[in-house]
Amino acid sequence: MTAQLPFPRADVENLTREEAARRGALLEVTHYRVEVDLRGAPAPAAVTYPVQTLITFCAAEAGASTFLDHLGASVESLVLNGVELDVASHVGPARILLPELQAQNTAEIRSTSRYSRSGEGLHRFVDPVDDQVYLYTQYEPADSRRVFPVFEQPDLKARFSFSIIGPQAWQLRSNSPAITRAPLETAETTTGDDADAHRLVRVEFAETPRMSSYITALLAGPYHHVEGRYQGGVPGGETREVPLSVLCRASLAEHFDAEALLELTRSGLDFFHAEFAYPYPWGKYDQVLVPEYNLGAMENPGLVTFTEKYVFDTAATDAQYETRANTLMHEMAHMWFGDLVTMHWWDDLWLKESFADYMGSLAVDEATDWETSWISFANGRKAWAYVQDQLPTTHPIVADIEDLEAADQNFDGITYAKGASVLKQLAAYAGREAFREAARRYFTRHAFGNASLGDFLAVLEEVTGANMEDWARAWLQTAGVPVLSAELDESGRVLVREQGIDPATGESVSRPHKIRVGVHLLDPSNDTLVLHAAQEVFVDPAAPNGVTEVPELSVPEGRPRLLLPNEEDLTYAKLSLDAESVAAVLTYPVADPLARATVWAALWSMVRDGELPARRFLTAVQQLGLGIEEIVVVQGLLRQSLTALERYTPAEERAGLQRDLAATLAGELTRRTGGDHQRATARALATLSREEGSQLELLEALLDGSAEDHGISGLAIDEELRWAFLQALAAHGRVSREQLDAELAAKTTARAKIAHRLAAAARPDRRIKQDAFGQALAGTDDAGQELSNDHLTATVEGFTVAGDPETAAVIERHTPAYFEALSDVWERMSQGQATRVVSGLYPGAQDLDPGQEPEQHPLAQRTEAWLQENGDAPAALRRLLIEEHDQLLRGLRAQAAARG
């Protein structure tokens, strides 16, 4: 018998794990019927919309009480088991209280919800090209409650029947296919000058299989759509047909490569059917590219949403196309990992995100024509994980998530990229076939249910016959980055050494690794480091002093060489290269693409750790990095170079190094004619030129069409680059507001409006900076209208641009007001919007005075003081400040180390 629950409070928005566990033990939710009325959505002043919800559920204890989660505008009526309850006493700002439950229950709620401008809930966007309205939902981890009353936790799965009322001309979609599409009676329709525009329909969608509320989805608007079909099946099973569709805004249709996306989708379904031997379980497969999206994508079954940045309306590099393919495969993996089998609570978020991150890269590698998937993974995703895992807020892959605020911040580099890296190591450790078979059993056993770490380990142990608890304890339940190094002892033997500290406990941590150790020697015929020999080795965590011998690997003397302790990038570890290897890779290129990406990742870690001065890294990038064939690596090195200048370079060196890099990038523009490398270089030069002004005349020439006078040909100056150059010029006061307005008027697109806002806020004027700062803190524009998520980010970013020391000083004077506003911002804004402000406005790019200790820096002391004075601040807000403080200190320490 379930213990009586305490009567809940209705004003608490932040659901805790303990509350969810109690509610989960009490309830079994059967079905939701939800109708969302969007007939008013096209109106210019639309703010809210009506919703009707009917929920059927069982309670394990008659007479108990519980609550629904709801962050809507209002509740008009509440009926529980046929009895109308008083709204005033049962409905609060965040919850709807349900007392005196029966064994079988029905709750009927008429409510009103708000359209979102933050990308949380039902987001409403007006296309500046044609004034058309587009809507879509985004819920993870807990924003379906912004649309309809719901038991908002992943283990209370149910079946959902949605219906939408909306304009007849619109695409109206949900997770399941439409089963009826009927005109409303004339009396119900909205009247107006254009009768066709106001004709309404009610679309009812088929009941879904059992699923969690956070992956339900709604879509409405005049989306351009292209239909397709998949035919295939699982090994030895029957053929299955899946209706396919891809959608985007109508104004982007001319740029939409729909057939390429449909073909990728077919390839992915073939791959996952073969890999998982469980047929795609969700009927249709719609993929929608939506505006003002907070994420890369979201795995709503049957209705996957993506950022419309993947509609390439300006020139895109091959790396961008590959990233899009990776995202598509990542979300498709979720149809099984996450949607079919779901975690009970957000502690096990990794059970879907780590798997999807790993499977996404694996699918791109094995099911598409790209050959750089694991290079991109090593250079990008793992770099993200290494940064996150060295913060004081790092956590085990299996995290301790006490509440929804913590869950929202746990979509981080640990949960995604570290987890994926560890799964790649697991596939090497246990064997690819064993990993595949374990996944198959996992899906069959837990289909449409919830599972935990123990459930996955159980199938692994069945398949491998090995006890996986020690492996899981070492890799999944401890935090911190392991460090691997390879060295030669006095007799010339190769040794691998492992070190690791769990930042949470301070204890030494050793993990098992199955790796390959490589020896790369200089080939004098082309001055390139080439793989000479490699050996597989098991790094035993119980080895004495953490040292494992590699007995069959020899290193010839007398030639520059690289010892690489993670050949093929099989494991998750920061690499500590010996001095001879560092000297070699800073002088000569590495021939093998994956080894090369692994080495550059190691060099970047050394910069961040203060072991390699930023100036040496920048020199190596300019001499060796810009010539790398794989554009994904080049783009990463350019981003890291800009960060190295901003954060890790002593002030007295920065101006000269900035000018050198700007000159090198300008030279690259002339050296290349078209192509991805030239375009990536132009983007980097534009970003660098926001702060450094030596190439502004070149940017002006590129804008006015006289590029060939500077020896530059083949570079398409499209909308993206035009605005990037204008933003740099605006930061130095070389374009006026009138010029920016004219550029926007000439081509008014969503991209242009965001870029214009950034450029306007970047101008070097005290009043402009003050206005931008005030708008960012308020979350509204100068007319008092709420800023959308993308416009808020543009305002914040524009404010932080300082093209000269005087402007930097103006920005710096806002620091006290920033700290004073933190708690208020967090309380007023949604967590997503507040995070943009808190992290974006933190003035973390600071200089360390000679002889000053990093901890003595005024900003470091001010941040530390705020943390001490606000010990009762929300944990999620404190986490952001702790992380910013740590990143600040890391940069200052690197500056100190660079001075020697």
UniProtKB/TrEMBL annotation:
Domain Aminopeptidase N-like N-terminal positions: 116-215
Top EC class for this record: hydrolase
GO molecular function, one term: metalloaminopeptidase activity
Reactions mediated catalytically: Release of an N-terminal amino acid, Xaa-|-Yaa- from a peptide, amide or arylamide. Xaa is preferably Ala, but may be most amino acids including Pro (slow action). When a terminal hydrophobic residue is followed by a prolyl residue, the two may be released as an intact Xaa-Pro dipeptide
Gene Ontology biological-process entries: peptide catabolic process; proteolysis
Documented EC number(s): 3.4.11.2
ERAP1-like C-terminal domain span: 563-887
Cofactor: Zn(2+)
Domain of life: Bacteria
Start and end residues of each Peptidase M1 membrane alanine aminopeptidase domain: 262-475
NCBIfam families: pepN_strep_liv
Entry's family note: Belongs to the peptidase M1 family.
Protein's recorded name: Aminopeptidase N
Native species: Nesterenkonia jeotgali
